[in-house]
Amino acid sequence: MSIVFSKPQKFTATVANIQQLNAITVKADFDLVEPKEINFVPGQFISLSVGNGLFRSYSICSDHKEKNKMSIVLTVAHNGAGSNYVKTLKQGDQVVFVGPSGRFTLAESLSSELLFMVTGTGIAPVISMLKKLIDTKSPAKICLYFGLKTDTNIFFADFLAECKRKLVYFNYVICVSNPTTAWKGPVGRITDFYKIYNVNAVQAYICGNPNMCTDVMKLLKDRGVSDDRIFHEKFTVSVNSN
């Protein structure tokens, strides 16, 4: 069955919760007001109105079955328009966004091996994808490599542990490039640790820092993974403003 994408439309919503996931990352939960339901495909994003006619795009990280609510994750460690706007939000505030948009989704026909390579908030759309894979009781061999600058910035670890319990062949590796002395896990970039078991079967899903996406795509192609098996979403790198 072909994927059906809903036409993007304008939504109003209220802030249900703002959760600080770590010192630099926030999860924002919204209750929809009008329209009251959203139909999105795991992996899609919305464009949030952040004032002065500006919009910023954020991947949806909630469950696609929860049609009357929606969640996003973003970094608030800089002074960008989106970051500054979200830092002002509190429970009950009204927001406006347009969506759902984007074609970074699970393939219509899933392979027996799924490779996810993400950095930072690039894990957000993959959270929705993993929830879908749990729903469908996917029998695929699924490997997730999650890269972060420091172990103090780790988030969604509990959900990844839940995936390991609920998905038969799921494994994940959190890689830290600048760890504290307390970190006992892998040190380096995700490209230092990833494994492919079957080059001819793997489907790769890449999301996060654009430089990482470019590097990973080249590595995969050099290893013989065909273009039609590589799916990616390059996040925009925010520039600090004074």
Q: How many strands in all?
A: 11
The main sheet orders its strands as: 4-3-6-1-2-5
Mean pLDDT comes to 93
CATH topology of the largest domain: Rossmann fold
Percentage of residues in strands: 25-35%
Order of helices and strands: EEEEEHEEHEHEEHE
Q: Quickly count the helices.
A: 4
| Helix content bin | 10-25%
Q: Would you identify the CATH H-level superfamily of the largest domain?
A: Nucleotide-binding domain of ferredoxin-NADP reductase (FNR) module
User: Over all CA atoms, what is the radius of gyration?
Assistant: 18 Å
Give the distance, in angstroms, between the N- and C-terminal Cα atoms.
49 Å
CATH architecture call of the largest domain: 3-Layer(aba) Sandwich
Count of folded domains: 2
List the helices and strands and how they pair.
Elements: E1 9-20, E2 25-34, E3 45-51, E4 54-59, E5 69-75, H1 81-88, E6 94-101, E7 113-119, H2 124-135, E8 141-148, H3 157-166, E9 170-176, E10 202-208, H4 210-222, E11 230-234
Parallel strand pairs: 7-8, 7-10, 8-9, 10-11
Antiparallel strand pairs: 1-2, 1-6, 2-5, 3-4, 3-6
How does this structure look, described?
- The protein has helices at 81-88, 124-135, 157-166, 210-222, and strands at 9-20, 25-34, 45-51, 54-59, 69-75, 94-101, 113-119, 141-148, 170-176, 202-208, 230-234.
- With 242 residues, the chain is of the alpha/beta class.
- The chain has two domains: 9-101, Elongation Factor Tu (Ef-tu), domain 3; 113-234, Rossmann fold, CATH 3.40.50.
- The strands form two sheets. The protein has a six-stranded antiparallel sheet with strand order 4-3-6-1-2-5. It has a five-stranded parallel sheet with strand order 9-8-7-10-11, sandwiched between helices.
- The chain is globular and about 45 Å long.
